[in-house]
Design brief:
CATH class: Mainly Alpha
Number of strands: 0
Strand content: under 5%
Number of helices: 16
Shape: globular
Largest sheet: none
Structural class: mainly alpha
CATH topology: Growth Hormone, Chain: A
Radius of gyration: 20 Å
Length: 414
């Protein structure tokens, strides 16, 4: 692997703000995420309907499949993050994870049972888990701390552009193939392999910047004890946020239940991710400058509004409004939570820190999705979204009244 040049990694912290101050490696990681998310969201925008209508899966089954898939990714992130800290290298794991995601894409159009879909989602999410924590740590490795919010915001924005291009492509393919879902799913492989190629060619491994990050120490559970209390409070905060929401598969199913035609179902994710992509970067910039507490509270309030809109929706248009609000919530909170992890974790344990964080949020997402599927099956769709709104309201009250120490939401970088 080539060693990064001074243009790819900062040698001194900088006060410069804005998109031009970011290193080229952030753009490469962001564009790789764009193409992979284009591929994945093409699949995900059609998969819930494919499972429900073609394979005959129940809502509870869909909730469990989605929840287990995401929890698998989260668990894998713990190990990949720790391994990247031990090796002092992150690019190999990032490329390996993207590669696994690419090779699983043909499994979905070949699926003849829910078991095949589960297998494809399971392997794909292992790939996501392998790449997730090393990639998030790599963003912090190659970016000055003063620009971490901006860097995570840009990467998330490019990721989200791919996340709405994928469903947009799905709509076009469904129209072209007369609603033949399997034919449309075959096209997901192309952007996935473009993402892998881009990362292999354009991402460079940075040199360690401190003596601490140059040392290779044995992997040990004792390292977890070196993570500060401020970090663990951030993990708790992220888990609470994730419990307040669930898999976006339920947004798709909600729109379909309100009469949205099969070929237009991917429009739900397009609407959500257009908003997500448009707001994620400015929200990341704002996270470097303004109140973190206010931004997180605003994100939860928007999530409550999204859940309420989806609970009372009587038409596909109202479902689109709910999806747009959902995307706004994600944009306000996800990049900021990554910044909080990077702020709180020691540099030598940054991969492990992101891995543990993603494990806890993944377990929360598994619980939230399984509960959402059960509520939908027993009480109907509105109950699912009303429960989400209630939990988001509790999380909002917790943030408003939190006055503890250490101050995980304090302004500025440590």
């Amino acid at each position: 692997m080539k060693t990064a040049t001074p243009h790819d990694r900062p040698s001194q912290p900088t006060a410069a703000k804005g998109i031009r101050a970011l290193p080229a490696g952030i753009w490469a990681l962001g564009l790789g995420a764009l193409f992979m998310d284009m591929s994945s969201e093409l699949v995900h925008s059609l998969l819930p309907v494919f499972m429900a209508s073609v394979l005959g899966a129940s809502m509870l089954t869909i909730g469990i499949v989605e929840g287990v898939a995401e929890a698998t990714a989260a668990i894998t992130k713990v190990f990949s993050g720790a391994i990247s800290d031990y090796l002092g290298k992150r690019k190999f794991l990032v490329v390996l994870g993207y590669g696994l995601g690419a090779v699983t894409k043909p499994l979905f159009p070949l699926a003849t049972s829910i078991g095949w879909v589960f297998l494809g989602r399971f392997i794909d999410r292992i790939g996501k888990g392998i790449r997730g924590a090393p990639r998030d740590a790599l963003v912090a490795d190659i970016t000055p701390p003063a620009l971490w919010g901006t860097a995570y915001g840009l990467r998330q924005s490019l990721d989200s552009i791919g996340a709405f291009l994928g469903p947009l492509l799905a709509v076009a393919l469904m129209a072209w193939f007369a609603n033949d879902i399997k034919a449309a799913l075959w096209f997901a492989a192309l952007p996935a392999f473009i993402a892998v190629t881009l990362l292999v060619v354009a991402v460079r491994e940075p040199e360690p910047r401190t003596p601490e990050t140059k040392r290779r120490t044995p992997l040990a559970l004792a390292d977890v004890g070196r993570l500060p209390l401020r970090y663990w409070l951030t993990v708790l905060l992220g888990a609470a946020f994730t419990l307040a929401r669930f898999s976006e598969a339920f947004l798709i199913l909600r729109a379909q239940s309100l009469g949205l035609a099969l070929g237009y179902v991917p429009l739900v994710l397009i609407v959500m991710n257009v908003v997500y992509a448009g707001v994620a970067y400015p929200a990341g910039v704002a996270a470097d400058r303004f109140s973190r507490r206010a931004m997180l509270i605003a994100g939860l309030v928007v999530l409550i509004a999204a859940d309420m809109a989806l609970a009372v929706a009587a038409s596909p248009l109202q479902a689109f409004i709910g999806a747009a609000l959902w995307g706004l919530h994600m944009a306000l909170t996800q990049g900021l939570l990554s910044k909080l992890v990077a702020d709180a974790a020691p540099a030598a344990l940054r991969g492990s820190a992101f891995g543990i964080f993603n494990l806890m949020t993944g377990i929360s997402l598994l619980l939230a999705s399984a509960i959402a599927g059960w509520l939908w099956s027993v009480f109907g769709a509105p109950a699912t979204f009303l429960a989400g709104a209630a939990f988001a309201a509790l999380a909002t009250l917790g943030l408003i009244f939190y006055r503890g120490k250490p101050h995980i939401l304090r302004e500025g970088n440590p």
